Amino acid sequence: MRQVVVAGATGLVGRELARQLAERRDVEATALVRREGSLRGLAGRVREVVFDYRSSADLARLGTELPCDLLFCALGTTLKKAGSPEAFREVDLAYPSALIKRLATLEPRPAFALVSSVGADRPKGLYLNTKAEAEQALVASGLPYLIVRPSLLLGDREEFRPGERLMSLLLARPYLGAARLLAPQSDLVWKYAPIEAAQVAKTLIWTCLEKPSGAGNQILAGLPLHHPILA
Question: Contact 155/16 with Cβ under 8 angstroms?
Fold first, then answer.
């Protein structure tokens, strides 16, 4: 039975990861949460563990009382919600880096799957530079890794983001329709195509748990992220 841990399980992709993992019988899933009862509707199927990423004691639980063969990291916030660049970088860089550092001390080394962002390969600005640094920390760690770089994420967020909702209504659906019709095999077009959070979670789980090579130290974006069988 694979022991799978989800960090960021209350976010858009993280909730989908928890939901899809709860439907499997070949894993035991643990979600790291800030407060009990965060995963409404998944009680009894996904273990909730209250966790402080700044706590060395909590981090030390990973691999001991919290077994971990695979960790999905979907941690992320916005500058507006965080309140400052420093607070933003804490969530999007310091927390993932702390998990990476801890898991890199374990034997055998767990696999680490990171949700990053399109554009992290050529970063500009606070958001993408932070994502790029998190990717670099993972690659340098020696852990088996999978990095996914989705474009605009689609799905029902608990928090209302008017800009993303407007983009989804006006651009995302028409873009996807045009991509399917006019450029079904164009990796460049699909690199920037909006994607459902459920599809990102499905790709992460399929690649790490079902694909024969597993995480395989790879980065997925564009067509292979939308259609993982192509990776």
Answer: yes
The answer to whether 46 and 17 have CB atoms below 8 angstroms apart is no
Closest CA to 101 of 74, 67, 66, 62: 62
- pLDDT tens digits for range 119-132: 999 999 999 999 99
The verdict on whether omega for the bond into residue 108 sits within 30 degrees of 0, i.e. cis, is yes
- What is the radius of gyration, based on Cα positions, of the chain? 17
Cβ atoms 128, 87 nearer than 8 A: no
Return the CATH architecture of domain 2-159+194-230.
3-Layer(aba) Sandwich (3.40)
pTM of the model: 0.90
Could you give the residue numbers annotated as active site?
127, 131
3-state secondary structure of 115: strand
Residue 199: count of CB within 10 angstroms of its CB = 19
Bridge partners, residue 113, by sequence: 72, 146
Taking CB atoms within 8 Å and a gap of at least 24, the contacts of 34-42 are 34/10, 38/9, 38/10, 39/9, 39/10, 39/15, 42/18
Q: How far apart are CA 37 and CA 35, in angstroms?
A: 6
Residue type, 160: F
Q: What are the tens digits of pLDDT across the range 74-90?
A: 999 999 999 999 999 99
